[in-house]
Amino acid sequence: xxxxxxxxxxxxxxxxxxxxxRSPERSSSSTQTVQAKIYDCPMHPEVRQAxxxxxxxxxxxxxxxxxxxxxxxxxxxxxxxxADHSARHGGLFGMQGNYHLELVRSGSTxxxxxxxxxxxxxxxxxxxxxxxxxFPGEEKLRVNLNPGPSKGLFVGASSKxxxxxxxxxxVALADTALNMTxxxxxxx
Length: 188
Fold this sequence. Notes:
The protein is of the alpha+beta class. It is 14% helix and 33% strand. The protein is built from two helices and eleven strands, in the order H-H-E-E-E-E-E-E-E-E-E-E-E.
């Protein structure tokens, strides 16, 4: 074999091997970027982790986010849970897990509103609620509430409500029990 033929044969063999290294399967796998899933708390975005779970600060279910946007994958852009933390009726507002509670105290009347994660009033058929009022000197008074005229509302009254320094709400719904304490300061 002539030297030229030997060099050409040699070039073809090594050229073919070089092309094999650049095959589409190999090149695409080496340049593919694997996106790791990230989960965060809608209420506490600083709580982030690589696995599903619950927020250690508030107990809410963590939601998957699309990196760079901060928006949960499963939620429409305008319906992110806990996007609105405003008291709807001018009361004290808090959350437990995926629920919101609002306590309104007006004179002797006590109103407790129960909302879902989107701050929408919940249906409460068969639900029960009590408010335990605490007064100076560790005296306590339990007030049973009845379902009110509007969705998600429990209503009750106590002539001593305006003197209470704190109120503990206990709500029993078909699928969950909620318990939350609000400081009242002893006046409306």
